[in-house]
Amino acid sequence: MNRHIAIYPGSFDPFTNGHLDIARRGLEIFDTVILAVAKNSEKNSLFSVAERVEMITRLTDNNPRLQVETFDGLLVDYVVSKGARVILRGLRAVTDFEFEFQLAQMNHTVCSQVETLFMMTSPNFAYLSSSIVKEVGRLGGDISKFVPPLVREELMKKFGLL
Ligand code: ADP
After folding, report:
1. What CATH number is given to the structural domain containing 91?
2. Could you report the per-residue pLDDT of 81-102, keeping only the tens digit for each?
3. Which of 11, 19, 133, when mutated, tests ligand 1's pocket best, judged by the most ligand atoms within 8 Å of its CB?
């Protein structure tokens, strides 16, 4: 069991500066952060899982301590398969709490060796979500403060704005 790996799971549809912030801060604490894109988030998503993995990899491939993978099925099974025991999640507002609380309790009940650790959002990103970025981007708003340039470009292509 490796104590120095954290699994950072999510939809990342698309990856935002808020996600990047949590991943970077996670790397201050853990040796390796595995950013795990949920395959079950394919439905109703803007980007396919493969597209998301490709974008995140292009953004992070200069850092061997930050790995990008996908997972299917139970998150705790995936965490254990990586020899890890920590799930890293971000918390933005009180509104995130109820859902995250439920998820963390469930995961811990299913697999007691796995713990979920939360990092509070940085104030700059407290209001930032993938859905709001998609909404603003779709309507032609400036999203350059919310996502890395590469993600902005891919979003604009999706919306036929580039
Ligand atoms: P999910 O569908 O699993 O919620 P998301 O891609 O929306 O996937 O989010 C993945 C994780 O990143 C979650 O823990 C979420 O709370 C966190 N997160 C998303 N946006 C931010 C942000 N702006 N600041 C901090 N954490 C964030």
Report:
1. 3.40.50.620
2. 999 999 999 999 888 999 999 9
3. 19
Cα–Cα distance between 101 and 103 in angstroms, integer? 5
Work out how many domains the chain is built from and give that number.
1
**Domain of 107?**
5-126
C-alpha to C-alpha distance for 71 and 137, rounded to whole angstroms: 28
**What CA–CA distance (Å, rounded) separates 24 from 66?**
9
Residues 6+ apart with CB under 8 A from 139: none
**The model's pTM:** 0.95
Q: Residue 84 falls within a domain, yes or no?
A: yes
Q: How far is CA 138 from CA 11, 22, 100, 133, in A?
A: 19, 25, 28, 8
Domain contains 76? yes
Residue 64 lies in a domain: yes
What separation in Å is there between the alpha carbon of 78 and the centre of ligand 1? 19
Residue 152 lies in a domain: no
pLDDT tens for each residue of 50-63: 999 999 999 997 89
Q: If you ran DSSP here, which 8-state letter would residue 91 be given? A: E
Element (H, E) at 88: strand 86-91
- Give Rg (Cα) of the chain: 15
